[in-house]
Amino acid sequence: SIAGGLVGFGASIAIANVxxxxxxxxxxxxxxxxxxxxxxxxxxxxVSSIPSVAPITQSVFGxxxxxxxxxxxxxxxxxxxxxxxxxxxxxxxxxxxxVTVSATQSANVTARxxxxxxxxxxxxxxxxxxxxxxxTTSATINDNAKIxxxxxxxxxxxxxxxTTAANTTLKVGKIALGAALNDGKSIVNVTPxxxxxxxxxxxxxxxxxxxxxxxxxxxxxKFESFAAGIVSAGAGKSDLTISGAVTADVxxxxxxxxxxxxxxxTNTSSADAKGTQIGGGLVGKQAAIALATIDMDTTAxxxxxxxxxxxxxxxxxxSTNTAIAKSGAFAAxx
Length: 334
What we know:
This protein is an all-beta fold. It is built from no helices and 17 strands.
């Protein structure tokens, strides 16, 4: 938005909402019998959810000029994704080569918002970015399913993997001979729930039996804010949050016969929040806040199950989190 005059007011708002449900399943009591591979796979790529845009990108811009100017600019994005691959209750993969049950999800979001204003008397305004990503990804073999019950399969790979990335940039500036006031906020929330599950099922394999859940999350945010006037006040905030769960499990009652058997849950998350607030005038107050929060539960468990393996058996949970928050506020007053 662009406005000019004795009094100028402007607002720019960009809103994008994406909801995806992706499912692949071998239904309850259904049967597969094949000399080849058996694959149940679901994949969701949020980058392709908005045509001709890769990655998903939002930009808003506002500029005002006049005696008194007020502006507000916002970029708002919400992704809700549910990706599921499953072998149903009492389903059977009687005979096959390699069996794969795979659910994968990826999202890459870029949001940018800018607001500038200059006036003779007063300039005030705000800029806000609020991406929210809710991601559920699961690969499951339900209770009472049978895998390789007629002839041993070669291998079983149950895999759930989700990758999210969000990058936000916020810039806001106000200049006035009188009062200059601004406010900028970048608030990003990512909630991944990733599950690889083998229920109370029977599995007979010659080779590897793998049950892995993986979550990878990368958030970056940067704001730059400037206010200059006889009276100047500015506040900037960058707030990044990753909160969710990664779970790989084998349920009570499961019977697994195989070579190498691995049950693993892996989380790798990073949040990098940076911000700078600068102000100048006879009277000035500036504040800059950068917050980076990671709260992920990473769990790998085997219940009261029976595992007969000719190779190693591993149950592992690995979590690597990196949170960085840097901010600076600078004021020059006379």
